[in-house]
Amino acid sequence: MSDSKTLRNQLRIKTGVVNRLGKEHALYMKEAEENTRKVDTLVSSGTADEWDVKAAKRLQDESGRMIVDVRERLEKAADDLRDLVASTVGEPGVGESEEWANADKALELLAA
To answer: Closest Cα partner for 28 from 67, 85, 81, 59?
Structure first.
């Protein structure tokens, strides 16, 4: 796997996975907040149908489970990318490539 083109391709793929999962995590967090507000509104109104409240709570629970799932997948993908970045630092044609810089940037954004 020391081929520079293969390493750059792996960096590009793993960076894309980390970026996609980061966006997914942010969207599920936003969805969970919206679902929490919806449940609170339904409960506080007192006029909501019991089925509507249960359905909203199910959505809230599902969002919570998805947050945990995406976070675990994101952590694994970030670890894989970190390992690949660390192993390619001294590789000629890879350590100074655009793909390596993008991977490093994605990891920095994730840490922030």
So the answer is: 67
